[in-house]
Amino acid sequence: SSKEKIKEYISNLSSLYRYLITSKDQDVSTVEAELALAKNYFYLIETRFENDYQLIIKNNELNKNKYLPNGALLTALENVVKHNEPINGKTVIMTILIKEDQIKVTNTISKSSSKESLGTGLINLEQRYQFLSDKVIEIKHTEQEFVITLPLLTITD
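Above: the chain's sequence. Below: its structure in token form.
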């Protein structure tokens, strides 16, 4: 029922907020926590836009000792939703591919946008990588897709 859907929506929204509030002072979070956050966020997107967006998670290997800058996956997904709206009912497909030392976030491009400047979210994320490590984000932009590669971080004492 729509009542159930609203309950679920609010519950996802509140866990998203809770996570963001409790982790705001942390520089990094685990891949697991980032994935959970991404799923929560995507649930909200799905509820709001129905079939406009689809999320596929290819979970090759979930390495327990790897980290991402806090909210990195969320930033990548938000970027997709911000810059792509489905045209003629064509779903925007986002894929999160987890590899041993990186996560690739790919999305199909729906609107024929001229090469867009990077959003503030991604610029901010690039700076956080610089601050935390010597690793850099890779961004590839073709006619068909946009790919952000997020290197995974290891914590050293």
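The longest helix spans residues 2-23.
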